[in-house]
Amino acid sequence: MDHKIFHSSFVTCFVTRGKKDPNLGGLFVTCAEKKTRAADNLYVVTKPSGNRYYVARFMQKGKSIQRSIGRADAMTLRQAKAKVAQLMEDAREGALEKTRGQRIPLFRDCVQQAMEDIERVKQWRNPRSAAQWRASLENDAFPSLGTKPIDQITRDDVLAILRPLWLAKTESARRLQQRLSAVFDWSIVKGYRQDNPAAWKSNL
Fold it and tell me: Residues 137, 175: contact at Cβ < 8 Å?
């Protein structure tokens, strides 16, 4: 069956030749994703599965930059705006271009770097919150994920950590999953990987 794809500023659609329709001119149109503006340089992309992602889009040095910054159900609009601001700052400083062609960092190194941005976005008033995040990741995730490049960690790797903990300490497992997801979201913003293997709805 013949098909083609067309794009607009808000929707990407697959057009398939099918049964004649006076309104469609013999075409069936199925939208693959929908993009809606959430704020300056920030959009929400809804996939066919129903999953929603924040996407940053802006111009830098005459080039259009578009990056996914994480799931829309995993952060507030304020947090998403803060990530966009950080991404634009990185672009101005040339940090985004530096990630291209350089060695992908290990998970443990990403955690150390990500925590600085996560603390700034969440604006914790109690310093114990950051300490708990670090301890949870270091104790439960580092033994198996610490020395792996961030882009090589799979959903199965994440499940191998969460499953045993889920049976013994359900709440601790839930918090660890959220913390892992935040680190992987950060790695997406930095351009180290394209997906989040710890995303609850779309993966686990």
Answer: no
